[in-house]
Specification:
By secondary structure, the chain is mainly β. It has 2 domains: 123 residues, 60s Ribosomal Protein L30, Chain: A, CATH 3.30.1330.80; 110 residues, 60s Ribosomal Protein L30, Chain: A (2-Layer Sandwich), CATH 3.30.1330. Helix content is 8%, strand content 51%. Strands 1, 2, 3, 4, 7, 8, 9, 10, 13, 14, 15, 16, 17 and 18 form a 14-stranded antiparallel sheet that branches. The chain has a two-stranded antiparallel ribbon with strand order 5-6. Strands 11-12 form a two-stranded antiparallel ribbon. It is globular and about 45 Å long. It starts with 14 loop residues before the first strand and ends with a strand.
C-alpha cells in the first residue's frame, strides 16, 4: 500500500475514536454571516457544539480557500497553497464539514468542490473567517452529544488537527449509537473502518461527514489519481465488518487542481494526513 513518511514519529492508535450520542437534524444557515458564525448558530439552535454537515448547494460571497500543495520545507509532508479569493457568488456542488472547537472557540474543517461566478469549477479547503454565506439554506447535519471534535497539535504531521474528545452531555434530544473518529496517516480508509466496526460489534454503519486527505486515490471503476496530496470530502458511505456492502463515495481535488469523484476501491486508499468522520451504527 502507498505510504508517505511524516515529519514526526508514529504515535498512538492509528484510529482515534469516542463513542457518543447523536442526532440527525436540519441545520439552517443565515445569510450575511461568516460561514463559521452561521454554522455555530445553526448547531447551537439544535443544542450542539460539534458535529458534521453536508454543504451541497451553499452559496458563498465573499469566498476564500486554499488547495493542497507540495511542502517547501521538511516540516510537513504536504502543505497548503496561497489563498484564493474568487469574485462573485460561488456555489458548492458537493462537500463535507466537521464542526468543533479550536483554541477555545468554534472552528470547522471543510473540503468541497464548487462552481465560481465566471463558471470556473474548482475545489479545496474553505477558510472559516474569510468566507460569508450569500443565501439562506437548510442542510442535513448530525450533532454530537457526549463527545465532539477538538483541534490539537499532532506531532506526527506537525499540523493542528481535529480529533475526537469526550465532552459533557448537553442534554440535547439524541438517538442511536454514534462514534466520532479520526484516522491517522498511512492507514487504509476501508480497512480501518471495517476493523473498527468488527472490534466494536457494529454490524453496519453509516458514514456522516468525512473530511481529510488520501495518498492519491484508487477508484472502484479502475480510475486513479497519482498525485499524492489531495483534499477529500466523503459524499456518502456505509461500512460492514466483512466489507460486503462497504462503500465510500468521494469528491476530491489534488495539488494540480485536478478533480475526481466516485466510489473508492477497497483496500487501496491510505490516509495522507488525517481523516475525520462520524459513524452511526445500525
Amino acid at each position: 500500500m502507498r505510504r508517505i513518511e511524516q515529519p514526526g514519529p508514529e504515535t498512538g492508535e492509528r484510529i482515534e475514536w469516542a463513542e457518543c450520542h447523536g442526532r440527525r437534524f436540519d441545520l439552517i444557515l443565515e445569510p450575511g454571516l461568516t460561514l463559521l458564525e452561521a454554522m455555530r448558530r445553526g448547531f447551537a439552535a439544535a443544542g450542539f457544539t460539534s458535529g458534521v454537515v453536508r454543504v451541497d448547494g451553499v452559496a458563498l460571497d465573499p469566498f476564500a480557500y486554499v488547495m493542497p500543495a507540495l511542502s517547501q520545507t521538511p516540516g510537513h509532508a504536504a502543505f497548503y497553497s496561497e489563498i484564493f479569493r474568487p469574485t462573485g457568488v460561488a456555489r458548492l456542488e458537493t462537500g463535507a464539514m466537521t464542526f468543533g472547537q479550536r483554541d477555545g472557540g468554534p472552528f470547522f474543517h471543510c473540503h468541497a468542490l464548487w462552481r465560481e461566478a465566471d463558471g470556473t469549477r474548482s475545489g479545496g479547503h474553505i477558510l472559516p473567517d474569510d468566507t460569508f454565506v450569500a443565501e439562506a439554506i437548510t442542510l442535513p447535519a448530525v450533532g454530537l452529544d457526549g463527545a465532539g471534535f477538538s483541534a490539537y497539535v499532532d506531532p506526527e504531521t506537525n499540523f493542528k488537527l481535529f480529533g475526537p474528545a469526550p465532552a459533557e452531555l448537553l442534554g440535547a434530544t439524541r438517538e442511536g449509537r454514534f462514534f466520532a473518529i479520526r484516522m491517522r496517516p498511512n492507514v487504509d480508509l476501508f480497512g480501518a473502518l471495517e476493523g473498527f466496526c468488527a472490534q466494536h460489534g457494529v454490524a453496519r454503519a453509516t458514514i456522516h461527514g468525512g473530511v481529510g486527505s488520501t495518498i492519491g486515490a484508487r477508484f472502484a471503476d479502475g480510475r486513479s489519481v497519482e498525485n499524492f496530496a489531495t483534499e477529500v470530502a466523503i459524499k456518502s458511505g456505509a461500512i460492514t465488518p466483512d466489507g460486503v456492502g462497504s462503500t465510500i463515495d468521494v469528491a476530491l481535488v489534488d495539488y494540480t487542481g485536478a478533480m475526481a469523484e466516485g466510489l473508492l476501491e477497497r483496500g487501496d486508499n491510505p490516509v495522507l494526513m488525517t481523516f475525520e468522520l462520524v459513524l452511526e451504527a445500525g
